[in-house]
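Design a sequence for this backbone.
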């Protein structure tokens, strides 16, 4: 791999955290879906017996939350709203059609990725809070039954919403050629960076100059 033609986009610690979180999330999501949809009951076998799945599900969910909070601290500065985000929104049809002929002044992450970032962080926080309320035998006995019922509904809705959001994220990652390689190797081509994140590419190019 000729790194002279590539740019480092994602550091190893961030990539390792991302993929570790993905594995844990898949296990949590599969076990959660098995309880929400009776026809998917067989999915809880990924964590062993149904009893073992109920024990491991909240612990793995906590791991997902902790790793996402670590990634939040690492990436929040790149996902804050900026004035240039309006350009992306005005040209979203061209972006979705793959037309990158117009300069969109996109930083390290575009406006759509920022919405995804805050959506994921918001939903995982909601899942964690509601999960604590319904977590037997550790915490549920501290709360009243009506609150537990509300937490159960909130947990289920937030869980399904997060799964759908992650599926959309994965689809777009495969759809935009070069994105998956960036999260596997950490590097993207200069052409990819200039095409999809022109302002970030300019910033990186300036910092590379002696």
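Sequence:
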């Amino acid at each position: 791999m000729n790194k002279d033609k590539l740019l480092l986009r994602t550091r190893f610690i961030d990539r390792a955290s991302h993929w570790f979180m993905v594995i844990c999330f898949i296990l949590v999501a599969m076990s959660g879906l098995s309880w929400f949809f009776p026809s998917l009951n067989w999915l809880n076998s990924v964590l062993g017996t149904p009893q073992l799945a109920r024990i491991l599900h909240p612990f793995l969910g906590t791991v997902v939350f902790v790793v996402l909070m670590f990634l939040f601290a690492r990436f929040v500065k790149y996902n804050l709203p900026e004035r240039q985000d309006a350009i992306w929104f005005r040209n979203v049809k061209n972006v979705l059609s793959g037309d990158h002929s117009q300069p969109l002044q996109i930083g390290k992450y575009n406006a759509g990725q920022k919405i995804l970032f805050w959506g994921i962080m918001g939903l995982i926080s909601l899942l964690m809070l509601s999960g604590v309320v319904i977590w037997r035998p550790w915490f549920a006995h501290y709360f009243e039954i009506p609150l537990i019922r509300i937490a159960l509904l909130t947990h289920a809705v937030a869980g399904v919403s997060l799964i759908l959001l992650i599926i959309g994220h994965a689809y777009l990652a495969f759809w935009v050629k070069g994105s998956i390689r960036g999260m596997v190797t950490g590097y993207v081509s200069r052409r990819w960076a200039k095409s999809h994140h022109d302002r970030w590419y300019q910033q990186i190019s300036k910092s590379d100059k002696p």
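Residues 79 and 138 are 35 Å apart (CA to CA).
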